[in-house]
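HUMAN: Mind sharing a backbone?

ASSISTANT:
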Amino acid sequence: MADIRQLTNVEQWEEALQGTSSRPLLLFKHSTSCSVSAGAHEDYVHYAGDSESPKVDFAIVHVLENRPVSNAVAEALSVKHESPQAILIQDGKPVWNESHWRITYDFLTEKLGQPAAAGH
């Protein structure tokens, strides 16, 4: 099971962004008050949970509770804010981003490959 790091301040975001020079980061921007985001969050967490030796790091920003972090992400990556939103970041730049109903377990598998789950 891969860890999902919750980014609650801008310093944590900047550290995570710097880390993308050695390993890609799949960042999930989650609105805790949105049912669409709840569904996407469930698939994101399930995908990360099935990933025993993932090819990416996982992080999450709760956009309502940590708006400065969410804004810093949008500004640093020049990616218009949406939530829910999944952004793959490598070498400090967005490789792709997707939002709303497109963020599914199958979509993440298509983009990142089948997670290396136990017993598979």
User: Anything to note?
Assistant: Strands lie at 4-6, 25-30, 57-62, 85-90, 93-99. The first strand starts at residue 4 and ends at 6. Residues 35-50 form the longest helix (16 residues).
